[in-house]
Amino acid sequence: MQSLQDQNNLIPRPRGRLPKVCAAVLSAMTIGGILFMSLESLFGWVAIVILILTLGSLLHSLCLLAEEIVNHSNTRHRGRGLLSHVMPACGLCGKTLLAAGLAGLLLYLVGHPLPHKSQSWKLIFLASSFYPLLKSLGVLGPSEVEVSELCEGRKMNVAHGLAWSFYIGYLRLVLPRLKDSIAEFCATHRARRWGRGSRLIILIPLNANISHKLNEEDDRIHFYDNLPNNEIDRAGVQGRVYKHSVYRVLDELGQAHECVLEYATPLLTLYSMSQESSAGFGEPERRQQVLLFFRTLQDILEHSLDCRNRYKLILLNDEHEADPHFLSKAILRNLEQQEKEEYCLTPTPQQEMNPFSKSSSPASNINGALNRWMRL
């Protein structure tokens, strides 16, 4: 239970709306602090501020539009309309234009809050013209948090692509066949019988450093055999082979526990990218992408009817590398949790033999029926 809590503390949560709430509160406090001004002057100042911000943004968008039209109209935007695609891509959207128009109308209606009428427009145009300059120089550029929020919200991270590829190209194909493969394996091997909820254990180390032989990571983990091959026609390859490996994991008493076990292979890509200087992908970025990969893959699988109850994701924290048996302990801990979940869903033998006996209460009969239904 403690390991699950530690795992949840490692996984980054989706970004919320707290910055918007704080910005709204700050604006309300600022307006409340200058309410001693006349209402007409207050509206005038608000209109000036909105015009400065929106006109500056629009002028910067026009600079971006000039770049796109001159240098990229035949490459990046070929076949796409100027109004329908290029202008919105540069930031010339209807919301900004509408805000600037309404602010200009408000300023015209309430008059000029500054002593000299010409000062208002001079201030607006001067501040707006400096905005694109500061924006282009990076002074007003987006922060790392804003870029991260944008990439996560639009699923633009490397981790999102790798997680979806891992699911579409592999897990969605093999997990529905896992139960039959295990049953066929148990019929021909002297292994313990797996439960109905047997799953593919997928290891996801935070450092993305994957060993191709698990016994090199932990000498309590031994390769046993492979499950029967699954042959699937895929992308023009007839009978492409997909296989899983069965391992025996020894506990502290030397008792063996069989399980289907493997690393998440897309992590090899993340690790290799961090070793290439041209990728611009350092260790902190790699660690962040591994956590996003875990969260994205978990969300995908939780909503997949084909893969439900057929997998187990284990996030391995590299801070425990000093323990030579950390990997086997983590696997056994999850196997024990899996067996407890199956036991809770299994009705007692007495209820199966005589669910309407006198010794059983109506509530227990209902629970037994629900448990049997959940096992189907």
Short overview:
The protein is α/β, with parallel strands linked by helices.
What would your notes on this structure say?
It is a single chain. With 376 residues, this protein is of the alpha/beta class. Helix content is 57%, strand content 11%. The strands form 2 sheets. It has a 5-stranded mixed sheet with strand order 2-5-6-1-7. A two-stranded antiparallel sheet has the order 3-4. The longest helix has 34 residues, at 39-72. The radius of gyration is 30 Å and the shape is elongated. The two termini are 27 Å apart.
Offer a few descriptive terms.
single chain, 376 residues, alpha/beta, five-stranded mixed sheet, 11% strand, elongated
Judged by helices, strands and strand pairing, the structural class is: alpha/beta
**How many H/I helices?**
15
Helix amount: 55-70%
Order of helices and strands: HHHHHHHHHEHEEEEEHHEHHH
Point out poorly predicted stretches: 345-376
Give the strand order, joined by hyphens, for the main sheet: 2-5-6-1-7
Overall strand count: 7
Question: What is Rg?
Answer: 30 Å
Helices and strands in order:
Blueprint: H1 2-10, H2 18-33, H3 39-72, H4 82-89, H5 94-110, H6 117-136, H7 144-153, H8 158-174, H9 178-188, E1 200-205, H10 214-217, E2 221-226, E3 230-234, E4 237-242, E5 245-250, E6 256-263, H11 266-275, H12 283-302, E7 311-316, H13 326-344, H14 349-353, H15 362-375
Parallel strand pairs: 1-6, 1-7
Antiparallel strand pairs: 2-5, 3-4, 5-6
Helix pairs in contact: 3-5, 3-6, 8-12, 11-12
